[in-house]
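Exercise 7. Given the components listed, write out the predicted structure of the assembled complex. Treat all entries as one system.
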Amino acid sequence: DTEVTQTPKHLVMGMTNKKSLKCEQHMGHRAMYWYKQKAKKPPELMFVYSYEKLSINESVPSRFSPECPNSSLLNLHLHALQPEDSALYLCASSHDYSLGRFSGNTIYFGEGSWLTVV
Amino acid sequence: DAKTTQPPSMDCAEGRAANLPCNHSTISGNEYVYWYRQIHSQGPQYIIHGLKNNETNEMASLIITEDRKSSTLILPHATLRDTAVYYCIVRTDYKLSFGAGTTVTVRA
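Answer.
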């Protein structure tokens, strides 16, 4: 089973709203990721969690706030977003990594959450 | 990150093999080549990866040249459901850096 589950599949929110995207995996993976994909563009990395701790933040604006409550769950809290933040948000997971010796662990993606900011 | 170069698009006849090329001339010795595909409006799907040797699984085969500067993904019997954007990625540590990919259209 290589399933990463994301909810909701579609979300429409106003610029003053607070909402959250959720991600779950039961593969025993200890690394989890958020990617963002704008229309007709490739996915871009946002955050990486390793053992429930934030390891990498790719200079993402603070209106995006990730959270990893346990090893199976990953959330992305959204607040005061702009219309240009409308995109497909992808969650992914893999066995853990250590910098420099990692790249053989496959990363598995969920189907994504389509976010529209109005 | 090592860059990859892929053709922007290619067509393939249903039932025939599809050979997708990728150049990665600046790849380092410990970097893996990964292939993913993304069918419209879905998340990227893992296909295969390799370091030096050729690899095969139930979806595809990956042929890596001896100097590791290029590779080819082979879909042995393309179906209409294989129409997608295919990404060749040289992976550094935690990061998958997606390029523009190759849009593959399988035609009946």
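Discussion: DSSP finds no helices and eleven strands in chain A. Chain A touches chain B through 29 residues (CB under 8 Å).
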